[in-house]
# Entry
Amino acid sequence: MVKIRFIEHTGVEHNVDALEGENLMSAAINNLVPGIDADCGGNCACGTCHIVIEKEWLGSSGEIGSDEQSLLTMTPEISEGSRLACQVVVTPALEGAVVRLPEFQM
Amino acid sequence: MNMESTTKMVSDPYAVDIDSLDFSDGRLFETGLWNSYFERLRNEDPVHYQADSPFGPFWSITRFDDIMFVDKHHELFSSEPAIVIGDMGEEIPLEMFIAMDPPRHDEQRQAVQPVVAPKNLAAMESLIRERVAKILDGLPVGEAFDWVDRVSIELTSQMLATLFNFPFDDRRKLTYWSDMAAGTPEITGGDVTNEERMVALQDCLRTFNQLWQQRQSELEIGEAESFDLISLLLSSDKTDNMIERPMEFLGNILLLIVGGNDTTRNSLTGGLYALNKFPAEFEKLKANPALIPNMVPEIIRWQTPLAHMRRIATQDVALGGKTIKAGDKVVMWYVSGNRDESVIDHADDFIIDRENARQHLSFGFGLHRCMGNRLAEMQLKIVWEEILKRFSNIEVIGEPTLVRSNFVKGYSSMTVKISR
# Structure
């Protein structure tokens, strides 16, 4: 189990025990964290699981692929730390990671 | 060019050899036969090569997962030069970002995307609600009228006029140009003549040229920045001289008009039709309006207002046990993928509280995913909230008239009667 702290845009926090090896999209959805639509079901094809990972953990969130990068550039609310949750695999290095949810998904 | 289908349309697609069926026939959508045609393909030959059609040979991709694969891999399947089954014709060689690959696609899309960004939409919500309320309050109660004309077209043309900051009284011109743009036999198997289309597109270009000049001079004299689409094009250094490239200018304008018009229009009609075909769902909705946000994506799936998108393979690709050759035309039939029972349970049924209702193909996937999806969803949500506040029932009388096109899956009229 890896502890992840999801924070909604309103400030509401959800502390989740994520399974090592799953991605942050399913960690959020399986723990009823709102704010992720996941229209493509985790195929890196829609951009509706946009999250922003706090700086401290960004380096532990893995490489951004070119597909993911293209979809992120279509999101008007892109910022430093933007990722697609379906592309971030939970590892022990993410222990305690703070993950912010944007107000809107594209 | 003779655009008559090379094969006869048959009422039972199972009765003949699968290779003799023409899946590009616009009449399939006018008659509703598309459903059994594509059901057969999904089951028997999901990645299907049709050697002969009025649009030349093409592949039909019919299953959900295969469509997702093609849509996602823009490097294997190019969107150039056109995204409908037929080519656009050489008299007016339109260019639009939906039919471009990266990097040009990305530059142009990024310029206009802010207009439909969720933040901008939230600011527009009350205006949309006001306009919806006015349209609904003006409808006759207890007498038959055409829902398509009085609600679906009216509302979407008002919305488009708002997004373009287009003269409000001329808003039906937008609808007309939209109908003309992709309505010919060569492009989508429709019934618009080339002459009529040519005149309409020239008028459209002239009008938007004037609008561009007007916006530009407003910007120059320092009038407040407006958030309409023309102003956005004028304010990005990638697109601020688009007016010098008339075919690119007209192409992108038409893209935004068609994208914001036919789609929402036909989902507005399709939702009401579906609720009449599945009356238990209508009762469920009336008893619990909180289901609206889940019903909206279900309407968009069930209707699938755009039946297909097409690509050209950039290299040989193995898919579903077949080899698609470089240069082959590939048609992703969203309308079929949205009825794929291996992904969507009871896919022919309209179920407003369906689980995972958002997982449908109507917006496409990947780089070219629908830009206006959130606007569309918001409009549908508001319309249904306002309908339920006002009326106890809306009854569809008889069967609607459907559009002849293999691209726009829509309604030309639908008679209804409202009960207070």
